[in-house]
Amino acid sequence: MKGFKSRAWGDSVFRGATLAFAVAILVLFAAVIITLWLAAQPSIERFGFSFLISSVWNPVKDNFGALVPIGGTLISTLVAIIVAVPVSIGVALFLAELAPAWLRGPFGVAIELLAAIPSIVYGMWGLFVLAPLMADHVQPWLQHYLGFLPLFSGPGMGIGMLTAGLVLALMILPFIAAVTRDVFLMVPQNLKEAAYGLGCTTWEVVRDVMIPYGKKGIAGAVFLGLGRALGETMAITFVIGNAYHLSWSLFAPGTSIASTLANQFTEADSDVYLSSLIELGLVLFVLTFIILGLAQAWLRRSSPMGAQ
Amino acid sequence: MTRLQRRKLINHIILGVSGLAAIAGLLMLVWILSDVFIRGIGAINWSFFTELPAPPGMDEGGLANAIVGTFLITTVAALLAVPLGVMAGTWLSEFGRDSRLGSVVRYFSDILVSAPSIVIGVFVYLIIVKPLGHFSGWAGSVSLAIIMLPVVSRTSEEMLKLVPHELREASLALGSPYWRTMLQVIYRAAASGMITGIMLAIARVAGETAPLLFTALNSPYWLESMNEPVGNLTVTLFNYAMSPYDDWHTKAWGAALLITMAVLTVTLFTRLMLYQRSRH
C-alpha cells in the first residue's frame, strides 16, 4: 500500500510540474503585454490616442507620434507580401505536385536553408549587394517606364521602402512556401486522382481541387509570413533608410516600428522618449498577435494536426 | 486551337512559371551564400578567431571575444529553455492532449514562436536590465531562452506524440510509475527527434540579433562576467556593417560567414537526420 501511495505521489508531482511549465508559456505571454503596457503608461497618458495618428517624432521636444513607423511597417510589409506570395505559391506547387520525386527532397531542403539564414545576414546582403543594384539598375528602369506613378518618383538611392520590402519578401518567401507546400500535401490523394481520372490537366487539378481544398491553409501561410514580416527587425534596419517621414514614393527612405526600436532604444534619454518607444513595441506586439492569431486559427482548421 | 490544346498550353505555361519560381528560389540561395562566402572568406584567418577587435584602420584584430560571447549566451539560453520547454511539451503530449487548456497553450505557443523578437528584447530590458541598472549577458540569454521556449515545447510535444502508446502501456503494466516510464522509456524513444528539434531551435536563436541589442548589448573586451555587457557576433556584425570603415565591413562579412555557416551546417545536418528517419 505504501509503495502505491508514494508512486501516486510521484506521478502527481510530475504531472503538476509539467503543467506548471505549460502554463508558464501563457503567463509569459500575458507578462509581455502587461509589462509593456505598464512601461508605456507615461506615453499613453501624455499623448493618448493621438499617439497613433500623429506623425511628429521629435526627441528634442519630447513629442512623439507613431504614424510614420506604423505606416512604414505596413508599407514595407505590403510590398513584401505582394512580391513574395505569388512566388512562394509557385514554389510550393512545384515542391508538392510538379517536381519529380527525386527533386523534391533537395529542393525542399534548399528552401528550408533559405529560411534558416539569420535575418541580419539578409539585411547586410541587402545593404551591400541589393541596394547598389537597385540604385544602378532597377530604380532607373522603374523610373523610366513607370515614373509617372507617384510610387516610383523621386531619386532612387538604393536604400528605401522598396528595397526594404524586397529584402523582407526574400526572407518570408521560404516560410510561406514551406507552409503552403505542407497544406498542398494535405490534400487527399483520392480527390486529386479523381480529378485526374476525369481528364483534368495538372493545373486544373491545382486550381479546382488543391487550392479550394487548402484555401484556409494558404491564407494561414500568407498571414504567417505577414506576421513575420511585420516584426522583422534586422533585415529592414539596414536598408530602410531611417527617415521619419511618410512619402508616396517607394524609393524614399522611411522607418518601421522594429527599426525605430533597434536604432533608438538605447539612446532614449527621457522617460517619455523611452515609454513612447515601448508603446511602439506594444503596438507591434498586438498587431502581430492579431495577424498570427488568425494565421494559426486558419492553419489549424485546414490541417489534421489542428484537429487534435 | 482546339479546347484540349488550349488547356494543355495553359497547363504547360503554369507548370513552367512554377518551376521557374522554384529555380529562382534556389538561385537566390546560391546568390546570397556565394556573396557571403566570397566577401567573408578574406576576413577569416587565425587572428579572426584569437584576437580582440582592433580600432578601424588597423589591419589586425579579430572577433574572438564576440565568438566566445555568442557561444556562451546561446549555451546559457539553451540550458534555460530546454528543460522548461521539454517539461511543457511533456504536459502537452501526455496529459493535456485533448484538454481545452492544452489547445490554448498550443495556440499561444505557436503565436509566440513567430512573435517579433525585438519586442522580447524590450520585455527583457524592462524586467531585468532596468531593475538591475545595467546590461548583461544573463539578460541576453534570458531573451534568447524566451524565444526558444515555445519552439522546444512544441517540437518535444510532436516527438513525444510519435512514440507508440503501447510502449507506455507496457512500462506501466510492469508497475513503473508514469514519471519513470517517461524518463526511462518514452524520452529515450523520442530522444533523437527531440535533439533534432532542439538543435534547430538553438541554431535559430544563435543568429538572432534584435533581442540582444538592449540586453547583452556588446563589448570589445574579453568576457569577464556574464553580469556585464557581453560582446557577441551578431550585434558586432550590426555595428561593423553600419560603420563607415571598409576594414570593419570586411570583418562584418567574416562574422556573417561564420554565423551563416554554423547555422546552416546545423540545419542541414538535422534536416538530413530527419529525412533519414522518415524513410525508415
Task: Report what the structure shows.
The complex is a heterodimer of chains A (308) and B (280). Chain A is mainly α and 308 residues long. Chain A has a single domain, classed as MetI-like (MetI-like fold, Orthogonal Bundle). Helix content of chain A is 77%, strand content 1%. Chain A has helices spanning 2-39, 41-47, 50-53, 67-98, 101-116, 119-146, 161-185, 189-197, 202-231, 234-237, 257-264, 271-302, 304-307, and strands spanning 57-58, 63-64. Chain A has a two-stranded antiparallel ribbon. Chain A is flat and about 70 Å long. Chain B has 280 residues and is mostly helical. Chain B has two domains: 3-41; 48-279, MetI-like fold, CATH 1.10.3720. In chain B, α8 packs antiparallel against α11. The radius of gyration of chain B is 23 Å and the shape is globular. The model of chain B has no long low-confidence stretch (mean pLDDT 91). The chains are: A mainly alpha (308), B mainly alpha (280). At the A-B interface, α1, α4, α5, α6 and α7 of A face α1, α3, α4, α5 and α6 of B.
